[in-house]
Structure formats: C-alpha cells, structure tokens
Amino acid sequence: MASTSSTAASHTSSAKKPEAESCSVDIVLDRFAEAWQLAKVIAPKMKRGQDMVTKFQYHMGILTARRCDLEKFEQHQQMHAALIALRNTLLTAKILFERVEKKRFFVNRNFQGKIDRAMSDLVTYSVQLEVVASMLASEQGQKTAEDARKQYEDLCKTQMQLSLAASQARTRSPGGGSSSGDDGFSGTGSDRDSRSGSGSDYDDRPRSHRSRSGGKSGGPPGIADLRVEAVPGLADGKKVGLGEQIEQQTEKEREAKLARLCVEGNSYLLGVGRAQDLTTAFRCFMEAAQAGFAPAQHQVGRMFLHGAGTVANSDEALSWFRRAADQGHGGALNALGIVYETGSCGVVPDNATAAKYFDQAAHEGDVEAMVNVAYHYEHGLGVDRDEVAASGWLAEAAHRGFAKAQNNLGVMLFHGRGVPQSREEALRWFVLAAQQGHAPAIQNAAFMYETGTFVERNATLAAELYSAAASVEPTGEALTRLACIRAEQGQCDEAVELLSRASLGGHSSAYVALGELYERGWRCNPSRADLARSCYAAASDAGDPRGIARLAALHFAGVGVPENHTLAFSLFLRAAAMGDAEAQNNVGVMYRDGDGTFASLSEAQKWFEQAAVQDEPWALFNLAELYELGRVPATDATAKAAELYTRASELGNPIAEEKLVALRRAASKRL
C-alpha cells in the first residue's frame, strides 16, 4: 500500500498538469451523475431545489442520448474545450452541494446565488456541448457523403479501366478480331436510364414524408429517403476481389436506377418539368416498389390510401406500408402508427400499437414520428404519461430543424412541462420555427410580444406577426388576435372586417370579440345590442364558454333582451362549469345574494374559490369579504381576508387596496 501511494504521488508531481487539460465524455457524464445525486439530496433545503434536479435530469438525458456523437469528436478542439468547461462547472456545483449536505443548513441568499450561477453555467455549457456535437456531426455527415460519391466515381473508373484492359487482351488473342467490349462491364460505370437522364446524382437530404393528418403534406418519397453510402470494402480499406466489386457495382447501379424511377415519379406527381400525371407517377413508383425499394413502397402505400393515380384501396395501402416498414423505413413505420392511431385501413384503433410504431420510426430518424411519439408520451396514449420523454423527443426533432417540433418544444418550455420553465428558450424556439414559415410558431411569438411575456410589450410587432401567421395559414385565432389589437389601436372598422372573416370559418372566439365590439360601439357607430346578442348566441351555440357568459350578462342587465335573472343564472352556471372564471364569480355572487337562484353561502364560497384559483380579481375580493365579515367559518379569517385582498389588489381590483388598508387600521387599533 505504501509503494502504491508513493508511486501515485510521484506521478502526480511529475505530470504537473491541471486536471482541466485532460477530459473525456465518460468523466463528464460521471461528474454529472455524482452532482445529480447530491442535488436530489439537498433539493428540500433550497427554494428552487426541484427545478434544479429537473434541469440536471433533462440535460444529462440529452447528453447521454448524444453520447455516440460526443465520443466520436471528443478529441476535436472545440469539443474538448466544451467538455472541460462543463466538467469544471460540475466540479464547482458538486463542491457547493457537498457543503450544503455536510453543514446541514438551509441555503441563505448569498449561497443560493452561487448555486444559481453554477446552474446557469451548467445549462449554458451543456447546450454549448450539444450544439458543438450537432455541428461536428453535420460536418462529418457532409464529408462522408462527399467521400462516398468520390469512392463511387473511382469504382466506376476502375471498372472502365478493367473493361478496356480486357478488350485489349481479347484483341491480341489468336483469332480475336475486333471487340466491342460487351464483357459484362458497362463502360461508363452507371446504368443511365433514358427516361430520366439524371444519372446517379440525387438529393440525399433526410426529410419527413408523413403528416399527422394522414400524409397529404410533405413531398413524396424517393429522392429524400435515399442515403449515399460508401461502397463496402472500399470504405473500410479491405481488399475486394474483382467478382465482389462487380457484384457491388451491379447493386449500386440497381439502386441508382430505382432512385431515378422515384425522381421521375416525383416529377409526374408534382408536375415539375412536365405535365402532372398521377397515373404515370404511380406506375414509376410501383415499378421501383416491386423491385423492393422501400421509399417507393411507402409512396405506393400512400397513393393507394388516397386514391392518387390509382383506385383507393386501404388493404393494398396497409400491405405496402408493412413491406416498407419491414425494411426499417421510418416514413412507413410512422404511417403504420397513424393507421393504428386513427383506426384507418380497417384496423381497430390501438394507441399502444400506434405508439410502438411511432417509437420505431423515431429511432429510425423520422422527425414527424418523433413529434407523434412525443404527443403520445405527453398525453399518456398507449404508454405511461412521461412529459420528460416527450420533451426529449421534441428536442431531438427540433435540433434537426423540424419546425413543428421546434414550436411544440417552445410550448413545453413556456409552460414548464417536462422541462424547466424558460420563457426565453420558448421564444427562441418559436422564432426558429417561425423563420421556416410555421404559422402556429409565428402566432405564439406574436402572443408573447402582445402580452409582454419575457419581452417588452410591442403591439405593433405582435400585429405584424399575427398578420404574417394569417397570411401563411388564415386561422381564426390569428385573425381574432390581430383584430383585438386593431380595436385597441382604434382601428375598429378593420377589426370588424377581420373578425367577420374569422367568424366565417366558424371560430367561436371571433364571434365573442365581434359581439363585444358591437356591444360597446365605436366612433360614429353606436352600440348595437341586437348584433352583439346574435354574435354571442352564435358563440354559445358553438359551445364557447365566453360567448355563453356574455349572453348571460345581456340577460342579467336586460341589454337588447328582456331582463331575466333566472335565465342569466342558468347561462352563467353553464359557462362556469366549462371553466370560465368570470362566470364562476358571477355564479358565486348570485348564490350569495339569492339572485336568480336560492341563497347559499357554501355554494357561493365554492364558486368564488374556483374562480380565485384562476386569479379572477373580483372572485378574490368577494371571497375575502366573506372571510372578513365572518359569513363562512374559518380559522384566522382576518389573515385569510388580508391575503386575498392583497392578491386582488395586485391583479388590479380597484377596491381591494382600500379594504386592505381598513383591515390594517382596525388591527392596529386592537393592538
């Protein structure tokens, strides 16, 4: 033992290099695990302890999932620097955590600040490491594709040289005569199909071909599903015999021909460079599919499913999807997931089977499937509910540039579901998706600027974004939000026009907003209670709780309709049961006063409490008043009333501050 210790000591003294100069992925992940375990132990002693543990779990999960990429490039200068920075941050965090654990104290503000800074650095360096890994993997992928193409061209040249050499040998042989060189080699090294004329150059960018709606969006497969692969034997440096080279070359030529068939099918399908002809497109895809080409099999399945270029046949569609899925085609596996999720093609709906196919497709790299399996994890459809797993799959697809995933990940970050809440990160992902023209993301970014969430409120920019979202995808929600901003800016005529467009699409909140405009009137247009009632009634018929509540308010006040408190109460109760906070408060008031229904303080308290959970200012005020006046039993009623008045005042209730001052004055007199 003594010799071992002295040897270790001498080694340490001779190296004279700080630990920061050598680092590996294994070391970083080990440090991550150690710090995470300590974080879980000390979390109860900290204000944001659980949030800290969640951050550890999230970032450690992402780095573990990317372990192959990290290890592949860990000696790269940028990667090594990022690993060292993260490792040092983890060591700092571990030291801080150990101090908390050993001294057994509750964390004070100064020490909490140190831990917060360490956690901020941890998130920063984790993301930096992931970005560097993604960048290097992308560069490596491009280089691999270029090398593969070069190897393929070199092989073609080799085959040409062998063909010429064989031709010359036959010419010199006794009784040979001239030779045309048709000895099994093509002379050019590629089987150029006369119908395509494109050779073997095709687009190898991965992309999704299937939407949750059933596959009508996204381009057809063929080009996009192909991968340029290195020729076996040449890529790994092994010596390959002539016969094996010929076999490999033949297979490459076969794949190139099938790829060109899919290119031609795409051109007929989309009408690019020629007249659109779905029947001819189907024939091209079918020829490649019958030869066993998985992307073509998937496309044939889609065309059978939708009756494009052929007679719709769900059994055939399912059969071709299965053939492509058996070869591990991500788009086909995703298509099978949608079939079982929706119960199409004559199968019984089965969320468990759908989730299984989505998971397999996601592991094959299909980004649409990543969004689908995330949806199943988020809502517990066919699998145990797991928002962390959902956010993980969304992050994977988002980092691959898939706009739908970027938007959905932003939503989870905005609400803090499955990931630590971060409005800043949410906005970043919304912007990335919006830059690709994704309408829901543009709308979400607009909402943040409209409400001033994380960013400075900017109604002008929000209006521009809502307008852009509506131009991409004219949804009622975007038009309604844009109209509300225009109304606030005094442009009520434009607002009415926008709301009328939105309501034509059946958007119920547009009816409500339009009704509110008619109810209060604008400029030279007086209040039109009759039109307001019609709008609220249309929203009510569509089941919109806000529309029902506004219609109830008209009946309660007798505006444009006969005053009828009993009818108003029944409408308020209906909207309250659907979760409308203002309606819940009004139901409480009517139960408290016995107006339109029987008097019941217990029912009033129940509805005030439900509305208070949603931070409805008047519900908070009314509940506080019940406690202050002793109308409902409660221990320490005055303190509860003071707390509720404070919340109501912070939310803008104009009378709550006065009541709070009166309570404090009364308390000081008693003292």
Share of β-strand residues: under 5%
Shape: globular
Residue stretches low in confidence (pLDDT < 50, at least 5 long) are 1-21, 141-145, 151-240
The total beta strand count reads 0
Report the major sheet: none
Class by SSE composition: mainly alpha
In N-to-C order, the SSE pattern is HHHHHHHHHHHHHHHHHHHHHHHHHHHHH
Task: Give the helix level as a range of percent.
Answer: 55-70%
Number of helices: 29
Radius of gyration: 34 Å
Taking all residues together, what is the mean pLDDT? Answer: 75
What separation lies between the terminal Cα atoms?
Answer: 73 Å
Outline of this structure?
It contains 29 helices and no strands.
Topology (elements, then pairings):
Blueprint: H1 2-15, H2 25-42, H3 49-65, H4 67-72, H5 77-103, H6 109-172, H7 242-270, H8 278-290, H9 294-306, H10 314-326, H11 330-342, H12 351-363, H13 367-379, H14 387-399, H15 403-415, H16 423-434, H17 439-451, H18 459-472, H19 476-488, H20 492-504, H21 508-520, H22 529-541, H23 545-557, H24 565-577, H25 581-593, H26 601-613, H27 617-628, H28 637-650, H29 656-670
Helix pairs in contact: 2-3, 2-5, 3-6, 5-6, 7-8, 8-9, 9-10, 10-11, 11-12, 12-13, 13-14, 14-15, 15-16, 16-17, 17-18, 18-19, 19-20, 19-21, 20-21, 21-22, 22-23, 23-24, 24-25, 25-26, 26-27, 27-28, 28-29
How would you characterize the overall build of this protein?
The longest helix is centred in the first third of the chain and has 64 residues, at 109-172. The chain has helices at 2-15, 25-42, 49-65, 67-72, 77-103, 109-172, 242-270, 278-290, 294-306, 314-326, 330-342, 351-363, 367-379, 387-399, 403-415, 423-434, 439-451, 459-472, 476-488, 492-504, 508-520, 529-541, 545-557, 565-577, 581-593, 601-613, 617-628, 637-650, 656-670. Mean pLDDT is 75; it is low at 1-21, 141-145 and 151-240. With 671 residues, the protein is mainly α. Helix 21 (508-520) packs antiparallel against helix 22 (529-541). Helices cover 69% and strands 0% of the residues.
